[in-house]
Write a structure and sequence with these properties.
Blueprint (H helix, E strand, L loop, with lengths): L1 H17 L10 H18 L12 E2 L5 E2 L1 H14 L1
Antiparallel strand pairs: 1-2
Length: 83
């Protein structure tokens, strides 16, 4: 059930991103970059003790989901450097 929910959310996000003009994403490069830096700082400061398999790199979300900001950071760095 959890994998089906995540697959559905992924398909919705894919459809949303595919319908947008990727050329306009350069305007938001700074916002996306600083948001990802902020999320990484949130993990480093507030969720230091929340370890999963010995690593503190997740933000716990409701319904048992977890967010890994480093994945957004990878995309943010690529977008920022290409801009």
């Amino acid at each position: 059930v959890k994998q089906a929910a995540l697959a559905g959310m992924g398909l919705l996000l894919m459809a949303l991103l595919a319908s947008r003009d990727y050329g306009a994403s350069g305007r938001y490069a700074g916002v996306i970059y600083w948001t990802s830096v902020g999320l990484l700082l949130v993990v480093a400061i507030f969720f230091r003790n929340e370890e999963t398999k010995g690593a503190a790199r997740w933000i716990p979300l409701p319904l048992g989901f977890k967010l890994q900001p480093s994945e957004f950071g990878k995309v943010a760095i690529i977008l920022t450097l290409s801009h």
